[in-house]
Design goal:
This protein is an alpha/beta fold. Helices cover 61% and strands 14% of the residues. Strands 3-2-1-4-5 form a five-stranded mixed sheet, sandwiched between helices.
Length: 290
């Protein structure tokens, strides 16, 4: 059985740990709200470029541009987003597992661009080709990181090394619904029949649909990657809130159990000391009477 001193030290240590987990929980909660505001501010930026691309594909469907119809080379580029640190439950493991599943599902070679050290290490341990690794900046994503990561994948696509570009990230749907997913960015999909203009109107592009697409596509790719980074950052911080809340509750349960054990042990010691005092007093009285 542990001594009272040992239990006291454990109680102090776990109390300190609970203070840390509570602080991390509050910090992560603040970061979630901040990142969600940035997601809302970025949404019109992503939607604007997405609408431009949809209009090009809707009104100029006959254009045989490389962004719409690349040659089949049997290799894809994967932009995979994770966090840099742990202490966020299963967030990193889930998105890393989704990236590996997506690569195996395609049944083809993949050139990986990672954003976040957890994803980089996970893919390298499994001998996947990591073309470039970027600091995830998961607590505060930067557009420059998204632009550079998207630029690496775009160069592979334009040079004919890959024929498609996917992004794997965790989509924020709610605080308790964090969904790992893989979205295809390139090649651009032609609109369905229901999305075409029913009146058959045409749109004039200057200097031409291909020229506009050449200019817009890099911005569209960067915007999609940046949006995925913001969503992943919100998911990571949300997962950390849940994880630290669970850790704080576990600390409270352990403290309650150890406190009960410590109080019982201390009371047992006090009772034993009282018994020894009473026994000693009775022994002295017996000696004096004899």
């Amino acid at each position: 059985m542990e001594s009272a001193q040992s239990l006291k030290l454990r109680l102090h240590s776990i109390s300190s740990t609970r203070q840390i987990t509570r602080s991390m929980q509050m910090i992560a909660s603040t970061k979630v709200q901040k990142t969600l505001r940035r997601m809302q501010e970025n949404a019109p930026f992503v939607e604007h470029f997405g609408e431009i691309v949809r209009n090009i594909m809707r009104f100029a469907p006959s254009a045989r541009h490389m962004y719409a119809a690349p040659p089949d080379v049997g290799c894809s580029a994967i932009i995979a987003v994770s966090g840099n640190r742990g202490l966020c439950g299963s967030y990193n493991s889930n998105v890393c597992r989704e990236a590996v599943t997506q690569i195996k599902r395609m049944n083809r070679d993949a050139r990986c661009v990672t954003i976040g050290w957890k994803m980089r290490d996970h893919l390298r341990r499994r001998n996947f080709a990591v073309e470039r690794a970027f600091d995830g900046a998961s607590e505060s994503p930067f557009y420059e990181t998204a632009r550079d990561a998207g630029g690496v994948a775009l160069e592979l696509y334009k040079n004919g090394a890959v024929d498609s570009v996917f992004i794997v990230y965790t989509r924020y749907e709610s605080a308790l619904s964090l969904v790992p997913r893989a979205d295809r960015i390139l090649p651009l999909s032609a609109p369905d029949e229901g999305e075409r203009d029913p009146r058959g109107r045409q749109m004039c592009f200057e200097p031409g649909a291909d020229g506009v697409l050449d200019y817009v596509a890099p911005f569209y790719l960067s915007a999609r990657v940046y949006g995925a980074m913001l969503s992943a950052a919100a998911c990571e911080q949300s997962a950390r809130v849940v994880s630290m809340d669970a850790a704080s509750k576990n600390c409270a349960d352990i403290i309650e159990r150890l406190s009960l054990q410590y109080n019982r042990l201390r009371q047992s010691g006090i009772t034993q000391e009282l018994n020894e005092i009473v026994s000693g007093a009775e022994a002295l009285l017996t000696t004096e009477e004899s």
